[in-house]
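FAQ: What does the model actually see?

It sees only this:
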Amino acid sequence: MASTKVNKYGITDMQQAFADEYIVNPQNATQASIKAGYAPTTARSKASQLLTKVNVQKYIKERQKELEDAKIADQKEVLQFWSAGLRGERKVKADVVIEGEAK
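And it is asked to produce this:
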């Protein structure tokens, strides 16, 4: 039987596994439930139940925000990028393909 111990997010490890799978593919909550370790025979109803739990919803929203924020450069990264370019430290690699010629 799965552990019912609650982690730092206020959800069980299986609930977190479901949420992580759901974040990757939100169009298929049933499949996320199965991948998280829930029985295929009850996966659809379990997924529905999990998506109504406040702590699971909160975790999903927080993780989605973290993932989105990680995609955006912060001020320091932008300054480092432009500074490296001004100093000539940034190397640009470009592949040139002439139409009709093979690589």
